Amino acid sequence: MKHKVMIMKRKDYDVDKIKSVVLEGIQELGVKPRGKVLMKPNCVMAHKDLFPHAFTRPEFVEGVAAALQKNGSEIQELALGERCGITIPTRFCFGNAGYMEVAKKYGLKVHFFDECKQVPVKLRNPERLRDTIYLPKPITETDFFVNLPKFKAHPWTRLTLSLKNLIGIQDDKYRLIDHNTHLEHKIADLAETVTHGFIAVDGITAGQKMMLTPTPFDLGAIIMGTNPCAVDTVCSHMVNTDPDQIIHLKYAAQRGFGPISLDDIEISGDYPLAEAQSRTAGFEFCMEKIDDYFKYQGKLSCIVGSFPEDHSPDYCWGGCPGALQESMHIIQMYYPEVHKTMGKIKYVVGEVDGPIDLEPDERVIFMGDCTSWRGQIDGEQVVIEKSYRSRCEEDTKNAKTNDMALKILGSVWHCLTNGKKRYIHAPGCPVSVAAHVNYLSFLGGIKNVNFDKRTLIPVNLGYMQMRFNRAINRMLG
Q1: Are 131 and 122 in contact (CB under 8 A)?
Q2: Which residues sit opposite 376 in a β-bridge?
Q3: CB-side neighbour CA atoms (13 Å) of 290
Q4: pLDDT tens digit string along 369-415?
């Protein structure tokens, strides 16, 4: 029996009209929400001025919540949960996204996954990357999972849809584990941990290029289904992309989680696939390697070496290179003229051989645990040793913290203690987007967005609330 996917037209964020479209989808797909129902949006980052297109819109979440309540006589609890990205407190992002007003209006229980107790979940699939993965307790207690991704391009995985949205069910302590060349496998692992009851993709305004700072694209669509592989396959075709190029989708399909061929999918709705493909002929992705991507931007140049894993020796799509792209876009979102004002930086990642040619006013950052180099800088013999640990050496049970404050203070202190040295070696695998921002700000002599007055106080208030509630919740279990 074929999996059903609906593509419906919706040009604006009118809540009542979204509700009507979703109700039609629920009925046609035979969706029957029951028990503890949890809606998971994509709220990787949210701010009306700085990050206006990064998250599932609140009107969309409201329309789905209203439709579920109208059609869910067996719902015991309707909840909203997420862990936003780059170590920022989820409370801050939910407030900026407008989700708290929606939660209050519809009586939704709110789960900030960074405040929840994390519990081990066993994986059984023969192709699994790990035997155990850690998830917030509310995910493990959910009876009916509702995935509400934002339709966006992604610089590491090409597209972020329902499967990639599952990264947000992990807290930061576990989120960056395998978030390197193993990222696509990690997403396939996460696909085993939840059973989808309903999926509704916010494709009304889609996002191009980046996932944190996307360029908006008027796609005018709501895509619905019950199987993440089927939904993501249809969405990839909508933007003229072969689903085999979405590696985590291919892995998930190979593990038996759903189809990757249109032959196994029944498409319905009032938005023909061919019409969507014609509309998205100019949809922009960003799967460029950083040595090419920053080649013509003047102040930042990159040297990419080899990487330690046999399955991806030439590039680390899920790690430091992509974090560099996102962090530079974040800095540019705060300070649009940054490429004119920052000092010159040479960014080195991977195992690199041979001399590094530096201009007199250029500084070097060796990024990540897998990076190594031997040579001279200003007549000084410099040895950068790699400290990369393989996946088998990574202990998920005793994972290191990825706390926001510790990340910021640690990288800032590292920069300060290196003073005016021409180079610095940043540890981590991967080095997070947040840490990248600190290193780039220091070496480039530019303002640090972590201390920008537009977000400094509300982010830190959210952080303090998060720390307090996390301590209480994890103590109580």
Answers
A1: yes
A2: 381
A3: 29
A4: 999 999 999 889 999 999 999 887 777 877 878 788 888 888 889 99
- pLDDT for the residue numbered 406: 87
The yes-or-no verdict on residue 192 having pLDDT over 80 is yes
Instruction: For residue 303, give the nearest of 207, 371, 369, 250 by alpha carbon.
Output: 371
CA angle in degrees (0–180, nearest 5) for 223-228-233: 70
- Residue 4: CA atoms inside 13 Å, Cβ hemisphere, count? 14
CA dist 331 and 51 (Å) reads 12
Measured CA to CA in angstroms, residue 160 lies from 88, 254, 304, 424 at distances of 20, 19, 25, 33
Average pLDDT, the chain: 94
With CA atoms as reference, report the closest residue to 395 among 119, 188, 130.
130
Residue 216 has pLDDT above 70, yes or no: yes
419, with CB counted inside 10 A (0-12, 13-18, 19+), is exposed
Using CA atoms, how far apart are residues 432 and 322, in angstroms rounded to an integer? 10
Give the percent of the chain with pLDDT over 70.
100
Dihedral (Cα; 284, 290, 292, 297), 10-degree rounding: 90
- Render pLDDT for 431-440 as a digit per residue (tens, 0 to 9): 989 899 999 9
Q: Answer yes or no: are the C-beta atoms of 426 and 49 closer than 8 Å.
A: no
∠ at Cα 189 (183, 191), nearest 5°?
110
List the one residue out of 263, 200, 210 whose CA is nearest residue 235. Answer: 200
- Full-model pTM: 0.94
Secondary structure letter of residue 347 according to DSSP: E
Q: What's the rounded Cα separation, in Å, for the pair 79 and 445?
A: 44
Query: Residue 73 pLDDT > 90, yes or no?
Result: no
CB hemisphere CA count around 24 (13 angstroms): 17
Backbone angles phi, psi at 54, to 5 degrees: -90, -15
Distance CA 129, CA 120 (A): 15
The residue-averaged pLDDT of 164-185 equals 93
Q: Which of 194, 192, 202, 206 is nearest to 251 (CA)?
A: 192
Q: Which residue has the tokens 């407190």?
A: 89
pLDDT number for residue 477: 66
**How does pLDDT run across 151-165, given as a tens digit for each residue?**
999 999 999 999 999
Sheet holding 362-367, edge to edge: 300-304, 344-349, 362-367, 423-426
Flag whether pLDDT at 474 surpasses 80. Answer: no
Q: Considering just the CA atoms, what is the radius of gyration of the chain in Å?
A: 22
DSSP 3-state of 334:
helix
Number of H helices, E strands in the chain: 16, 19
DSSP 34-83: EEEEEEEE-BS--BTTTBTTSB--HHHHHHHHHHHHHH-TEEEEEEEEE-
